[in-house]
Amino acid sequence: MKPSERIILALDVPGFDEAIDSVWKFRDHVEIFKVGSELFTSVGPRIIEEIHSIGKRVFLDLKFHDIPNTVSRSALVAARLGVFMFNVHTLGGFEMMKQAAQAISKFSLGKNVDRPRIIGVTILTSMDQAAMQDELGIGLRLGPQVKQLAGLAQRAGLDGVVASPEDAEVIRSRFGKGFLIVSPGIRPSWAAAGDQKRYLTPREALRRGADYIVIGRAITSQPDPIRALKRIEEEIAGV
Ligand code: C5P
């Protein structure tokens, strides 16, 4: 994979035109665009069709988290839309993840199409140890908690996890090469942290084992976003 193929650009905007303008603007540099809850809630599946028609792939970041039946049906819809990747919350549990993974495998085999990568969100990168313990009452330390959830995802048949770049190394060493790690929480040294608490630079995230890095504001909020993207490409070349 070329370094630029490892960057997933987050289309965190509310409007169809705005999002598509970004896809055109970045089309020479980015292969995968992330459609999250803001954009999808605002404009619906036609954004995915439009991105596909430009020849780009979609990571549908809706973090499904519901009972197994509902999530597996939603997963099927994502597969029908032909997205490259989508995610569920590992905290939804083993059965939820297993049924979703099985539903899309069956669909993709039946249609003879590529199975979308199904990825489990572990602990959000905006959440730190204190928030996890004091707000959610989760007793484990962050590291073991992430490992526990990643293991559950792997056993349930998921292709990988969304995890902070800080957790990438431990996940990579524990779950091996084939298990995808998608890391948001990416901040070059020259960008503001914002609400992300557990973040690293693009270079460090890849060095620690992330397969894909999800970047939004560190590119889109810069005065010259293309220059910011090129700077990141240079920083990660040769990692
Ligand atoms: O602007 P920034 O680079 O922080 O954007 C990160 C993107 O990744 C956002 O769209 C956010 O929803 C998403 N994301 C995240 N943490 C996760 C999963 C997705 O920040 N665990």
Key structural traits:
single chain, 239 residues, alpha/beta, TIM Barrel, 8 strands, binds cytidine-5'-monophosphate
- Largest sheet descriptor: 8 strands, parallel, barrel
CATH superfamily: Aldolase class I
Mean pLDDT: 95
Trace the largest sheet across and list its strands. 1-2-3-4-5-6-7-8
**CATH class category label:** Alpha Beta
Q: Given the helix and strand composition, which structural class is it? A: alpha/beta
Q: Evaluate the radius of gyration.
A: 17 Å
In whole angstroms, the N-to-C terminal distance is: 11 Å
Task: Identify every distinct bound molecule in the structure, by name, code or SMILES.
Answer: cytidine-5'-monophosphate
| Mass-distribution shape | globular
CATH topology: TIM Barrel
Work out the strand percent. Answer: 15-25%
Could you please describe the fold and organization of this structure?
By secondary structure, this protein is an alpha/beta fold. It has one domain: Alpha-Beta Barrel (TIM Barrel). It contains 11 helices and 8 strands. An 8-stranded parallel β-barrel has the order 1-2-3-4-5-6-7-8, surrounded by 6 helices. Helix 8 links the parallel strand 6 and strand 7. Cytidine-5'-monophosphate binds next to strand 8 and helix 10.
